[in-house]
## 1
Amino acid sequence: MSTEKTTKRTVGGSAAERGLDFQARISAIVMAHLLAERPIGWLEGVLDDTPLELDAETGGPGDDIGFVGRDGKQVELQAKRGLQRGSDLWDALLALAFGISAGRINAGVLAVCPNSSATIRETLAEDIARLGMGRSDGLREIGRDWAERLSAASLDASLVCRRLRIVVISAVEGSRDAEATATERLSRVIQDPQSAWPVLIECGRRLIRVRGRAIPEDIYRDLSLARIALKTNDIGTRVQLLAAIREWLHRIYASTTVLGVRDTVPFEACWLELDVQVLNEGLAVQEELDKALRRYHEYGRDRRYGGQSFQSRTIARFVKKCVVVGGPGIGKSTLLKRLALDYSADGYLTLLVRLPLVVALVIREGRRFEDSLLDVALSASGIRPPFTSLDGAVLLCDALDECGHQQPLVTAALHAFSVAHPRTRIVVTSRPIGYRAGELSGWRHYELQPLSDSAAEQAVLRVLEAIPFANEALRSRAVAVAKDQLRAQTIKDAASRSPLMITLLAALSAKGIDPGSGKASLYRQLFLLLEDHPSPRLAERPPSEPERGRFLELLGWCLLCHGNEAAEQTLSRCARWWSEETGQPSLISESRVSACLEYWEGLGIVERVRTLTQEAITFVYKTFGEFAAGRYMSKCDLAAQRELVVRSIRTPEWKESLSFASHLGLAPLILEIWGELAERGDTKASYRFDDAIELVVQAGVPVTDDALARFAQCCWQAVENTASRARYAAGEALCLMSQEHWNVVREAALARLECSDPWDRLVAWTCLIVSPDQELKVPALTDELRSLQRAQPTDSYLGGLHLRPTGSAVRRHLVLGAASRVLAGSPEPEALQALNDLIGNAEQLNIGTIQQLQTLFERAGLTLTTMLDQQWSRNKVSLPTLSDWNREIAYLFELVDDPSIKHDDGEYGDEGGSLELAALLTATSYWEMPLSSVWEMSVPPSASMSKSLVIHTVARAAGLDYARVVRQARAMRKQILGNEERGARALFALPLVDAEAGFNQPLVSVECMPELEELILNGNEFFAHNSAMLLYGLREQPEYPSAIERLLTGGRGESLRYSAELASKLPYGVCQQLLLDRLCLGDSSSGCHYLYQRLTPPYGARHIEAIRKGLEGSSAEAAKAAAELAATFPVDGAIVSEWRTHFNQWKTKEKPYPKGGGTVPDSPRDELVKILVQAYAYEHVFLLELLADDRPNVRSVAREPFLTAAAASQSLRTTLIEDVQSGSLEPVIFSAAVSAGLYQGEEAMLVARLLHSSDANIRYAALPILDVKFLPPELVQSEGARLLTDVAMDIREGASRALRGLEPPNAEH
């Protein structure tokens, strides 16, 4: 007789519907006792059969139903309706017996209905119990038959029957006693058990269909969906605790507050979902307080790109242990509230705690960590939970960084808790500053990402829809105000910073407050809003409004001026200033400062942050502090203001505070001082003339014409200075000024329209064109545009690219101003042609300018066409058609399918909720694959079975419910095949969910190795990657080395990357031997560079052979990797000579170096030269050859050895001058030699003659010789003065610097 069933039915113990109903009702009975936490009574005297979880269609000995008892014992049950003596009886009993004997289950139950054979219900049931007591006497015929069957199967009758029972379950028509008992059990926890019973039966049916599993959380979820209320007044069970916590969480978090809005708003309505990005590298631990705070304030400024991003609301669904890091005001605590609402609604035991409170209980009262979690989570709820396990719970932990030096204790406790409760989900949040991963370093780490501009706009409008208004007309008006405000980039940038900023902007709109279009006016209104909003932590004597405001100003200036420092130093400094201003004793000042700090902490504007050893005080946003510092400057006396403005202009990091100060009334003073500094030659002022206008003129406050006129005169003087790039910044400043203050610029601009200096003339005309002047007519403009095309100054980049001012900004003003005038009416063809000629190929126009031009042309009913269109068309990537794309997606989902899972159309069909399918795409790295891999899924088509195996196995490794995955994939595939356009959108509408497959253990048998190898070698990258991960799980198997050898031998290109990675998991000696065999015996093909990178010391003769093979081959990538390996060897004469031969050979083998830009081709020479310069530094001719090489990396390596040799050789220095003059060498190496002081005395005079060269590059390279260290002062003076008129700006600037070097040291600059 077979020891196992030869076939398994897909659904239920019987194909008949009545049998299915019987099985579903038995499942419902088990679930009723599971909810009530009461024993079922079927196994009385055998084990405690209080169920903890239920399985349907287990595929095990019982097949139909399985459940885990309170003591962890596994019970399985076969359900047989109307059972009679025969094969069905004996097959079912023997399957249970084999399972008991083999230890697969701890007990088995054959469940029969009352209309089954009485011989089975009574006689056989009694005889089995008798056999279980070790008694074989007194058995009836059916009992003896059973005993003989056990003996024939070599099974111990006493052992088996001790744990085997036949029970009669009255759960059929006309006999519902068992159901009545179950309903009575339900009445203990459910308000209306009669309504709950049908829900449990339907739940049982669904579990049978999907072969699912149910725990209290799952059953509670079904009851909640059916609106079945639980009793929560007296909590005695886990499911009641779930319900009570859910009710409490939804009660306290149903609404929230918005800063600046007096009434509460619905939490769900204003929830703003952010993305989280996986942090693949650990956070840098920064102990230095100042650096840590600077890095902290960088968080949230911009979205990060390049890593995997997921929707924050899906955190912990499949990756169950994680840490979420977020910058100031980004919404870490709000995210935990959202997760608490979601997980509790899904039926999970959800605990939300602040970790500083938990650690306080552990340390102060010596409480167990687990008990402390429960106490803190439920402290304000009034819920008194029964003893309950936290396994399978959701633990949401806030503020890890605030635990300070106790962090190691907390992280160790969390790690130990996670090990003891593997099914528990744990989410920990922390600021980046002060965070130490400790024992959580192995957990998944995420960073909360700010919103994009477009998402931020929608978020502001969403909050406005949630804020209560007296009527809809007021709401509509606020929405209209917000939309108008969000057109300004400043407002968009602020909104995208964080949810806090979004709610503040929404509050401004709700109050009808216009923040203006400038940053200064925006933050001014935000501060007024904050000062008007009461703190939630009001003390008995809160600080007065003047006190609160002055504290912020002192704090802002303290942090700006003195940098980030320890909290005690900051507070001490603020208290000292407070005493100096008010005359109050220090103790009173300290008290008032402390009270103000507490007030602003309560509002969330100021916060305490900690490193492991220090605490600091900072603004939640750095910009808040910069605005406060600007207010401080605006309230100082005149002498102090002048000093602070000078410091601010000379300190670029203070730019924002200076801008705010200008908005607050210091604009005339800032212009005056800026002009004074520029006139004295202060480059930090003169190079930033345009900043002065942006900070002051565009600050949105009136500025006197006299102050502007003085500044404009200073700018015109700078424009006329041909020896400084400050003329470019000054030109842009004048253009900006002309737009708003044309009356100030007009006279000087009109006087320069016919100026002989092209730059003066260009600036003057651009000022006129961008001004509101109506006297300039289009025909006159058309004539002038033709000449202005040639007026653009020719800049020089003799010293390489730099960030100093250029004339491109004025050109952008010219193009946009001309376009606005020409396109204002019906443009004449001649004018339009002149404009198109001016735009040309859009050189020096940035993307923003091109977009503005596009808008202007569209408004005129025209199309902007430039040479860029042709350039962009050449760079377009060829994308697949919609039908091709959908075909490959449908093919992927076909591979996901599993025929053994019953079709259940309509279930799990909503793509927005297809979490398991989305998780599968993440676990298989689908979103990280190259586009070419994604749209070539069906290549090769013959490997579909192998591909399907890989996908199914990865899903299992990620812990996904595969039945749900299959049904969601079927629904998605149906959409794709039914509607191409909607199908493509459906894929990208899937939620972004994190999931991670565990590949450390074997997931497939060794018989699958050939299939995996085939996919790695011949499949696309998607399947190669996942196959390699599965093969990695077999690394302990004896067949693994042979598989890797085959992969290395047959691999090419990317398959060798996977092969090399898999080889590295072998023992060191085996790995190195296989790699060397492939490199020495195989061809040097693409992908071999991955193998070289895996070679490690100690090196020997075979490594030299491998290097030689790589250098002899045709693959530049492999040769380069071989050369990198060669560079690790000691310099040996014979070997180096061979490397020099290969160096010379690759001059012709490598692809030509692109002269005009483009992709730089690989070459081993960049690495070989590092070896050769060590061995042949004495060969001057060789060094000169290297300096003349086409490849910059080769020239760079040769530079220092050459300069060292030239310092000791006059002839080499002379040769350098000759070769530079002849054009054999680039002047840059000559410039380095001159700067290094290699030319002195008579040689210096020779260099000085090169200042007269017709080649500007040579003149520029010789410029460092203009120094009294090398030449007589009178020669420096005469040559410098002459070069002030040079055609190249770089040379004029260099000459100007040389002349300033002749001035006395104490001269004022």
## 2
Amino acid sequence: GRALRGDPSEPGFVAYPRAFMVQSGTDAVLSCQITGDPRPSIFWEKDKIPIEPSGRYHVEAKGDLYSLLVSRATPQDSGLYICKAKNSVGETYAAATLKVEVGEPREEEGLLDSEAPAFLVAPSSIRACRGEDVMFTCRVSGQPCPVVQWEKDGHKLSDLFESSHFAVGQEPEDWHFLKLFGARPPDGGVYVCRARSGSREALAAAVLLVEAQALPDRLPNGSPDDGPEPLGEQVRGAKAFTVSAGKHAKFRCYVTGKPKPEIIWQKDGEPLTPGRRHLIYEDREGYFILKVLYCKPQDQGLYVCTASNTAGQTISAVQLQVKEHRLRFQVQLEDVEVAEREDAVLECQVPLETIPTAWYLEDRELQPSHKYVMEEQGVVRRLTIRDARTDDDGIYLCQMKDKGRSIAEVSVRGVIVKRLPRKLDVMEGENAVFCVETREAVEGTCWSRDGLRLRETPCTVLKSFGRTHLLVLVHVTRQDAGIISFSVRESQTSSQLRVKCVKRDPPSAPVAAEMSVVESNAALLTWCPAPDAHLRAPSRYLLERREVSGGEWVQCLATDLPSRVRVLGDSVPREADYCFRICAANEHGRSSPVEFPGSVHLAPAARLERGLQDARVKDGEDAWFSLELSAAVHGTWFLNGARLSEEKEEAGSRCSVQCHGMEHSLLIRGVQRADSGAQVTFVSGSVRDSATLHVQEAPVRIISSNEEAPHAYMIGQRVELWCQLSRPAAAVHWYKDGEEVEASETLVLEQEGPLCRLVLPCAQPQDTGEFVCDAGGDSVFYTVTVAGGCHAHYQCCKAGITLAAGPGASRMEAVWHRVLVLLAPQIRIAPVPEAQQLQQVLAGLPMLLECQVSPPDAPVHWLKDGKAVLPTDVLAIHSEGCSQRLHISAVVPSDSGMYTCNAGDDAASFMVTVREAPVRIISSNKDSPHAYTAGQRVELWCQLSCLAAVVHWYKDGEEVEAGETLVLEQEGPLCRLVLPSARPQDTGDFACDAGDASVSYHVSVAEPPVRILHPLQRSLVLLVQTLERVELRCELSVPDAPVRWFKDGLEVDETDNLLLVVEGAWRCLFIPRSSVEDTGEYICESKDEAISFDVKVHTIFAEPPVRILQPRRPIPVVTVSQGETVTLGCELSRADARVHWAKEGVRLEAGGSLVLEEEGAHRRLLIPMAQAEHSGKYICDATDDTVTFTVQVLDPLVRILERDALPTQRHCQAMEDLVLEVHLSHAHGEVKWYKDGEKVQDTGRVRLEEDGARRSLIVLGTTVRDAGEYLCDTGDDSIIFFVTVEEPPVTFVGSTCAVKNHCLVAGEDLVLACKLSQPDATVRWLRDGQEVQTGERVQVKAHGVLRQLTICGAQPSDSGCYICDAQSHPCAALHHREAQVLFVQRLQDVVAEEQGDVCLEVEVSHEAAEVQWLKHGVLLQSGSKYQLQEVGCRRTLTIRCLGLADRGTYRCETLHDRTQAKLCVEPRKVSIQTPLADVETFEKEAATFHLELSHPGVPGVWTRDGIRVKPSSTCRISTTGCGHSLTLERLSLEDSGTVTFTADTLRCSARLLVREPPVTMVRVPRDLGVPETGVASFECELSRPSAEVKWFKDGQELRPGPNCRIYSAGRRRILQLSHCELADAGTYTCDAGDCCASATLHVQERQVRIVQDLEDTQVQEGDNAVFNCEASHGDVKGGTKPGLGVRPEDKGLIRFVAGTAVSEANLRVEALPIRIVKPLRDKTVLARHKATLECTVSHARGRVRWLRGDTEIFAGDKYEICNLDCYRTLIIHHVGPEDEDSYTCDAFDDRSTARLLVEGEGAPGVLSPQPTACKGLSTGVGGASWIWD
């Protein structure tokens, strides 16, 4: 092909460099576009000084685009830059100004010597007293050297402080400091140090606390004479402000001054400090705020704000009045102070019993619960706060409905004195400061967010100053929102951190957009910034283009300066009509786009990348022409000068024009011979290329013949062989037995049109043989036999020789011939090696078959598949001596077959297989960028070396199939894979495999950016009225993209009154009935953009308030049974008023089980089928009035299950435990137990238990008194148990009842005592058989099991036998006096924990002493609860499983002594002994979490990511003693998260991390051994199909290529190497990350032999020398010498080397004779001048010699001999008369002679001619010598 170029032209600027400004440290690029022919040279200058490309200056050229890059620009780089362009035609220049400013550095990339800034030593937080100097220091590293800046609370220090108040500096070794002189309380806050290096930044923060000193004596309310005027004078006329009781009062004071004023708030002359009801702070607008919360009457007074600094002071005052409600509480709430974990009780009295009240903790309404117990007794309202904690500290309110409030403060004394605020709202980017004060300095504090402990980071400051503990979150983001908690020991306080988005508006749209298309193939775009651009954040301009025919808008330019832009044709991807639009954008969004009017036709300047090639096809085939340009432009095809249509091909059209990207192609179908020589031309702009179509004749085919007819003839018969050809007049050749025949009298050759005939007019026996008609591309065979005629044949023999008689001979006429027959020698073929017998040849390559035959001249025949082979243009048969060769210059697949060299007596066979030539990929678009966004069209294409090759497309190693989303196309050699609409899952590696070659493409498809198309503004304000419907809508650019909605920084959830709706591309938030609580900032956030709606709901006051007329208050409780209908109704004051119903704060809507009705002024709520969940409080809200209904749905009948099967008759032994148990029909049913008609209470000995539906009554240690009738009553059902207790016989403990004799002295007391086995047994005392009567001297006592008879002042008459009769066991005793039993060790007070055991121990005076234990005077018996033990003198009482009921006084008694102690039972303090530990495991395995508590039997709850975990097949929960375990089985990756155990007030968390199991190799690759050029496949199988692997060879990673294919199939990973070479041998490793395996590849070198050696060659100079050498393998690579246009010096030894095989031959070059083309001419010169003789020889290498006369001349001082090209020159210096002579140039084959004449000396002053330089080779022998080998 040929590419035509235009005329030369001088350089010209298509696009000029423009002036612009950059920040210091960034790269600056000056670019311009220059054209010119020839290509111009480019030079750059700065301030008229040339710039050398080195260091920070880099010059680059891409086509006609030239750039100068200034790396890391500094202010010194500012100046005037000039670009000069110059070529041989002319030159031009252009200038631009570059300005480098010091400021915010932009993004730097690629700086190898840069180092991110880092704080080696961060500044420390400080607490200082007023007036002290404060210094923050830090040490920073970074490269380049970081720039350090300080700020306070997000403001520059210069904006807050006067310059004399602070100093910032730097010290050696990268130390930086900030010093504050004379610290003031306003100086306190968060100080942030920013270190910036290039585009990277690091920050560190510290806190400063300034403690104010005591207030001076001279306050504003009193001053000396020379001081300011009295307060009364200053505040006289202070305005009054009234607020209702219970409401907030907010005072704002705006003060300016420098230094920043110090603010003091006072009330009635007393300073105010921040507290529960007094908030003092500075808001974002700079106002100083005092907020008095929940005002009380005592808050009335004069409030003064005093602002002072070093320059003076000012005050502002306001009089606060608190207006009380007309209906007040009779008794107000009183402030309460309790210790932590104690109960706090608040109590007040309302005027009427019927007035409903509600309790509030500040702004949160409290609901009755275990924590908050609310009681109403007449007019008394009581709130009990159980187990008060730090977060319960606050302000509590009791409010009568729409009436007065009563307010009290609850102070909780504990470790924490100052708790966290309940919530904290900060703007995004601000600092969040949390402060906690403890009662004393403590250690072990912990800050956490959402349960996760916070650690010190550059953006998280944790600091403690004695009792003050600080947490600072620097520059908060939305992710920092959550519950912030501070805990120390067992105390904790929490706060909700809410982060609000900063409202920022996107820029306004640019204006005055215009487009000029005067210049060809370019567009000049101009615009102006928006009028309010200076009021908004800095923005940049985005220019987008789109084809007029449709498509996506594509960004083509981004610039910071409003200006004009020239868009050139080279900036577009393809030729088309384009339109443009522009918009302004900053970090807050982008403006609406503004389109430039009109459109412009642009075409990129294309260059010819791959030209047209001449096409050679055969008659009837298709011809294919293609070329590739550097850009996608339109073009026109011409055929023989005629333009071909670019429209779709018409029916019957021969030509098809196609364009795919930058490739243009032309297909001509069914070419004919007449088309040969046709010129095909392609023209596109300045590109023009042509090619020629060559059409060859189609091979001649034989259509029909009489080949199949029998060709057996008799002598003399006519033989006719004929065949019909496919084309008339085609040349044919006839052969007989392999030799061409010639026409003669006995053989006639005829041809008439397509019919060819061979005729034998009179057949003879010698005509027998095989005839062949060869038409070049086809042939036909005839086997002709000619037999004898009908005459008799005679045989005569003589001397053993048979004689044959000819026709007509008779017996009588015999002619005798003497015949000598000699036996012919036998023909033999040398054995052919097996390697040569089996040959595989690629199509298009030559093939040689050779065998050695003896004798040398023996005839042979070559056969193919049994048929004779005839020579053709491509097939030659050679016979040289013993060598017989068959040579095919270019084989085709049809040449495959069995070839046989038949020598008659012997034969040699060759099996030839012809394989198709490997398919090659000529071109493809693999180098083009294949990065797309979802929805774009993806086209991958490649062009093959042959038309109909089969290809396979793969994605990530798996073959793809055509479908709706993937189209496979193949037109001729062009193959395409098209994705009409790309999706993200289409990302991957695509490969086109053509068998012998492949090409890979990496395609990445990204999700399109989610833009908010409507509304265009990024911040909207909506004003709505209460009860109106609020609709917030935004339209997305991606219809199915997700969004998140936020309100005041917190993500919202869908409720009945807040609906989140998706309508196609629209995202909507609906509030059906708005209220004032719905006021706030709503944000809709997509992946890439966000939009905010500022909704403000205000109340309408135009209409009178709506009142509820009926029902009257109070409303009785509505009680219904399950399944009945509930009707709640009310009557309004206006029929058009709207109400909404709510149940316990949740808004109700009609539908499901609810019906809402409206009839005039009546509103009703109906529940057709009431269920238990419908119980509760229902509120009908009419905006201005509400009414509350209490609905109680009675539970269903509670039945006792299987009551007939229960044993109602129970009998037990005394002191046994009695258990009565029933099962109910409902688990929540309640029962009551009665004994003999009296209700049974739960005591220590009698227990009432519930477990699901089971109800139990347990009596511990039954006695006779426990016998009776027990009734279990559910209200709907009952059952009676009859219990009998068998009492054991009464016995005396420790007595054998033997008669004991005792003596007493008269007057002493007689004491007789015995101990019974039962405490309630009755006894009688007998003396001598008579019952003893009690009296003054005789006393009978019973103490538990002890029975005692005392006779005071015994007399002799009292002697006798005394018997204690216990009916069943009488015991007798005489007068007896025992020793006293005293306590050696007495009881001590004991404090124990709940649910634990306690042991009370005493020691008595002797081992046999009896004691009894009592609690509150009740005798204790040994059992499961109490265990009594006696060991020696020790007596112990063990109490099991302590409860609060076990508190009290315990007493131990003997007959003579007693001791008692107090047992105090405290609630158990459960703690975590062994916390949870983080668990990291693998997928499908199990994870076990275990922790140990301090107490057993503590119930707990397991949660995972906040969701309660319940036992299941994959989850086991177990408890053993103090240990609690959670086991999760068959884990998946999604199970990763936080596992939490909660018990009582304890909470413990741990992380669960589930990883994919490590990849293992199920099957490893094996060692392989393959022959050279063979295929090697390494394969391994992994345990996971998704694992990625890398293949390495000897440590080097392998990449897919033509001979290396890497792919996967399921879990199999395969590496396939084709056409292996010796260099491919080595160790191959498959690395899967977690495991790897290696295998070795051995490549066996093949033995290459030379089949046909090189032959010596002699050629004439200038001719081509061709050397042929045939090796045993067709694909071997060898070395030889090119032989085109040889020269004499090329002669020598030619060597072909292939492996170990070598073949050599000599090249002899016959030099051409040298002729003198232009002879010498006689010359006359002046003396002392130089004489030049010159002639021209026939070629430049001709060697000559110079002669003077007959003497040869050599170069020297006198003579100079020059040889330049074909010129031969002799220069004679300073000639004189003696130089006159004949001079000859002898070229050996030719010569030329001239005469030199010398005239007299030249005249003075005449300018002598100067010598002329002659370039060339100069040798001493008159020629150059070249040496080959």
